Amino acid sequence: MSRYIKGNALVLRSRPLGEADRLITFLSWDWGKLTAVARGARKIKSKLASGVDLFIYGSYQFYRGRGLAIVTGVEVKEHFVNLRQDPYLYTYGLYLAELTDRLIPESGLCPEVCNLLLQGWELLPEAADLLVLIRAFELKLLQAAGYSPHFGGCLHCGAPRAALFSVSQGGLLCPDCAGKQGVAKGFTLQPGTVALAKTLLKLSLKQVQVIRSRPRQEQELARIIETFLQYHLQIGEINSLRYLKSLPAPR
Ligand SMILES: [Zn+2]
């Protein structure tokens, strides 16, 4: 079997290594998450330099020996210049990458997640409501990773008028079932928030970009998604998210 492999990938993370190299975490359509070294990529004349930064979508060649894979060639398909030029968009794009990196394990194929992240980076500059796009991305990423929270009525009896979101149970409960289950703690959601979550899960990321939400509904959804992520996936603190919270709300 050839040790040279070639395929499309997205750069999730890129950090300096040693004197002149870069260590890169790729998300690839054919091999899932892949960590590789780009030797000499920090030298000015390196042919790899332009293809191993965060947000690059490209076709890569790797050599897979016994140690870490080595990047041997790259053909850049998209640089996402818009994300690089705007500090807000850069940080949101970074958040999508960091969240994907935390949620997706090293092994296992994830073409659906590759498509989602690529589309997320493409749509960020043109979204009518950036925060709605981010919430939709989070919900779809959770769904693709097999952890989707349940918003379709009460988890136990299916009653449509369920408004208490139990993070530990991963979905909505009606007052009767919450009482029977002894669930005292949870987030009481506005009907509009439940409707927003269901809409974001149903529509494609591209369709979602025209939606605008009421701030309170978006904030409720943001809170339960973040609590859900920490409770079920223990993803720890995400630097870009902490930074985004310190900024004023986007346009
Ligand atoms: Zn119920």
What's the SSE blueprint?
Layout: E1 4-17, E2 21-28, E3 32-38, E4 57-63, E5 69-78, H1 81-85, H2 87-103, H3 111-123, H4 130-144, E6 164-166, E7 171-173, H5 175-181, E8 187-188, H6 191-202, H7 205-208, H8 215-233, H9 239-246
Bound molecules: zinc ion.
User: What shape does the CA trace take?
Assistant: elongated
Could you say what the CATH topology of the largest domain is called? de novo design (two linked rop proteins)
CATH architecture of the largest domain: Up-down Bundle
Ends: how far apart?
52 Å
CATH class of the largest domain: Mainly Alpha
Summarize the helix and strand pattern as letters.
EEEEEHHHHEEHEHHHH
Describe the structure using short key phrases:
8 strands; de novo design (two linked rop proteins); OB fold (Dihydrolipoamide Acetyltransferase, E2P); binds zinc ion; three-stranded antiparallel sheet; five-stranded mixed barrel; 251 residues; alpha+beta; 40% helix; elongated
Could you explain the architecture of this structure?
The chain is of the alpha+beta class and 251 residues long. It has 2 domains: 4-79, Nucleic acid-binding proteins (OB fold (Dihydrolipoamide Acetyltransferase, E2P)); 83-246, Up-down Bundle (de novo design (two linked rop proteins)). It is 40% helix and 22% strand. It has 9 helices and 8 strands. It has helices at residues 81-85, 87-103, 111-123, 130-144, 175-181, 191-202, 205-208, 215-233, 239-246, and strands at 4-17, 21-28, 32-38, 57-63, 69-78, 164-166, 171-173, 187-188. Strands 1-2-3-5-4 form a 5-stranded mixed beta barrel. A hairpin with a 3-residue loop joins β2 and β3 (32-38). It is elongated and about 65 Å long. The relative contact order is 0.12. The model has no long low-confidence stretch (mean pLDDT 91). Bound molecules: zinc ion (ZN). Residues 154, 156-157, 159, 173-174, 176-177 line the site of zinc ion.
